[in-house]
Amino acid sequence: MPQHSPLEPAEGDPFGAHTLPYGVFTTPDAPDRPRIGVRYGAYVLDAAAAAAAHGSAHAGLLDQPTLNPLMAAGRPVWQEVRSEVRGWLSDEAHFHPLDRVTLHLPFEVADYVDFYASEHHAGNVGRIFRPDADEPLTPNWKHLPIGYHGRAGTIVVSGTDVVRPQGQRKAPADATPSFGPSLRLDIEAEVGFVVGTPAPVNTPVTLGAFREHVFGVCLVNDWSARDIQAWEYVPLGPFLGKSFATSVSAWITPLDAFDEARTAPPERTHPLLPYLDDSGAEPGGIDLRIEVTVNGETVSRPPFSAMYWTAAQQLAHMTVNGASLRTGDFYASGTVSGPEPDQLGCLLELTQGKGPYLADGDEVTLTAWAPGPDGARIGLGEVTGRIVPAPAAPPGS
Ligand code: MN
Predict the structure, then answer these.
(1) Catalytic residues
(2) Could you tell me the distance, in angstroms and rounded to a whole number, from the CA of residue 116 to the centre of ligand 1?
């Protein structure tokens, strides 16, 4: 544990010495020098400066404009650096107030996958999008974690404005599609996992190897244009209704910070193939409590512990076909929804498909924490975004 520091956050602050998430920041005096910082309460530790001052062997990994070199170094190095950072918390010389720095996208995103792992969400969406189907879940849903490849290049850091997307939409009653700004712009409250250690082609990552590969965790808002999505998604899945923007936290919380929050996933109702069978594995769930606010008002508290598929199963599934894994690969859980009406992770479910959806100027913020050691809270950095109007209609539209 660190020595006492005058900067030490108050008891109950989710960014105390048990959390220590990594981000990338700049200061007003050096706006062209992004480097790695560690959040500690209302402060940011300049990890590059502290590492240099304390003669750390890992100083070169911390004086970087992205987390990728540190992420690629592997779990033994992650653990050494985290231990060193704890020792630097008592050295006041290298801290900046959080409100005086600019935060940047913390890692260079390689590939991006979004899953669909909440049984409550998938069931609710199935009932809304396919009201005539016998079963809300598709026949494959309990046998494999369903996902799709998203657009890595439009992942943006928390605080970035989101421009209302435009596209084709056609309601069932309409004779022909029309073009224009989305009229049903929604959120999806999700949890993201950042891959550090790569894996070569044809070396699937087993459930037990999850910790060796996943560097950390963050919040994700998978903005979704429901009208565009509903018209385009059959038969190949989400496309332009999702790819305009995906917001992520500025802070990546190390996976090891959640050791006390591991929890068993819901009971499996269908037998799983061996590569997904986690019945004898360490508990794969995380007891993260998410809060969704729109314009400052709490609209939902989705429980991540209710997710049917775990992040370890998702990584095993992503690589079981022989696909390689790169540092910076990023995957999100899918919308987190629990069984209760105030635990739903998107407006589609919260309004039972009727809306209202997001208006221009609306600001959405996700926060989350998990239980840590000795009653401490482990926080995920917030993810926030404000909707700005679509640009004027392009010529010829
Ligand atoms: Mn999603």
Answers:
(1) 121
(2) 7
117 Cα: distance to centroid of ligand 1 (angstroms): 10
Single residue among 60, 85, 104 that ends a domain in this structure: 104
Q: pLDDT (tens digit, 0 to 9) for every residue of the chain, 397 residues total? A: 445 566 889 989 999 999 999 999 999 999 999 999 999 999 999 999 999 999 999 999 999 999 999 999 999 999 999 999 999 999 999 999 999 999 999 999 999 999 999 999 999 999 988 888 889 999 999 999 999 999 999 999 999 999 999 999 998 899 999 999 999 999 999 999 999 999 999 999 999 999 999 999 999 999 999 999 999 999 999 999 999 999 999 999 999 999 999 999 999 999 999 999 999 888 999 999 999 999 999 999 999 999 999 999 999 999 999 999 999 999 999 999 999 999 999 999 999 999 999 999 999 999 999 999 999 999 999 999 999 999 987 666 5
Considering the domain architecture, whether residues 172 and 153 belong to the same structural domain is answered as yes
pTM of the model: 0.97
Same domain, 137 and 84: no
Is residue 1 situated within a structural domain? no
The answer to whether 335 is annotated as binding is: yes
Question: What is the rounded CA–CA span in Å between residue 5 and residue 15?
Answer: 14
CATH value at residue 194:
3.90.850.10
H helices of the chain, in order, are: 47-53, 59-62, 68-72, 75-88, 119-129, 210-213, 226-232, 311-319, 347-350
CA 284 to centroid of ligand 1, rounded, Å: 20
Q: Domain residues for 64?
A: 22-104
Ligand-binding site membership of 130 (annotated) = yes
d(CA 122, CA 347): 14
Helix (H), strand (E) at residue 294: strand 289-294
The response to whether 169 counts as a known ligand-binding position is no
In a domain, residue 187? The reply is yes
Is residue 379 one of the residues assigned to a domain? Answer: yes
Are 331 and 225 in a shared domain?
Answer: yes
Residue 242 annotated as part of some ligand binding site: yes
Whether 149 and 183 map to the same domain: the answer is yes
Strand partners, 239: none
Give me ligand 1 centre to Cα 286, in Å: 18
Number of domains in the chain: 2
Residues 49, 160, single domain; the answer is no
Q: How far is CA 183 from CA 154, 354, 359, in A?
A: 21, 12, 9
